[in-house]
Amino acid sequence: MSEKEVFKKKPTVNAGWEYCSQVRPSTGTPDNKESYQITLPEMDNLWPDEQVLPGFQAKLLQFEEDNWRLAMKILSCFAEKLGFEKDFFVECCKRSSPGYQCTLRLIHYMSMENAKPEDFKQWRAGAHSDFDCLTLLHLREGEGGLQLCPGNEISSNAWTEVTPVAGAVTCNIGDMLMRWSDDKLKSTFHRVRMPQPGEYLGPRLSVPFFCQANREAVIEGPEGKYPPITAEDYIYQRLHANFVQKHK
């Protein structure tokens, strides 16, 4: 813990390590997890020393780029269907831009092997939709708990289990793409529940890649349903709304 504290995430930076500090408005309690976030322009002094974690930085930089390339292929399909140029989202998410906002996140949900009964009443991750355009989620077989509720409306009877499959990448549409599509593409509410009796109780690991437009990119749908807004201002608005809900 003392070594991880060196890389602690600052409130104004979307990079670094955090521990049980993300509170969802849907639950009002911290998610039972720790994470390490990689956002390329914000990584100054946030990489562990090569002697501590050999190859860590190089491997994750390559994995981040691999995820970006996959996300661009998927978003190019959406772009053409929405009436944009095929490379529209590629231009809006350039990795070389100082305003690059895509984030790779390593998540460790804590083991529940020695947990108390009351601990199982909380959530590993409360219900939410992602702020981004597209989330690519890497899961390990046997480490379930992810549930989704399609249609951008939470219903207690509509939650569906997402079972991890080897070699598959789970894709979630985010709020940014929903706005960009004039609500034709719906973002997906999802959550991570606690293990149930008879299920695996050990630590749960997942790696999401949040693909979101560069700060300077302007979000405006083909039909103009919403006024234009920069990706930076859009994310700020969403974060501020979450902060207000959390403190009501």
Automatic annotation (TrEMBL):
Classification of source organism: Bacteria, Pseudomonadati, Pseudomonadota, Alphaproteobacteria, Acetobacterales
Keyword check for Transmembrane: no
Keyword Iron in annotation: yes
Keywords for the protein's UniProt record, in alphabetical order: Ethylene biosynthesis, Iron, Metal-binding, Oxidoreductase
InterPro entries referenced in this protein's UniProt entry, alphabetically: IPNS-like_FE2OG_OXY (IPR044861), IPNS-like_sf (IPR027443), Iron_ascorbate_oxido_reductase (IPR050231), Oxoglu/Fe-dep_dioxygenase_dom (IPR005123)
GO molecular function: 2-oxoglutarate oxygenase/decarboxylase (ethylene-forming) activity; metal ion binding
Pfam assignment, any one: 2OG-FeII_Oxy
Catalysed conversion reaction: L-arginine + 2-oxoglutarate + O2 = guanidine + L-glutamate 5-semialdehyde + succinate + CO2; 2-oxoglutarate + O2 + 2 H(+) = ethene + 3 CO2 + H2O
Protein name: 2-oxoglutarate-dependent ethylene/succinate-forming enzyme
Protein family per UniProt: Belongs to the iron/ascorbate-dependent oxidoreductase family.
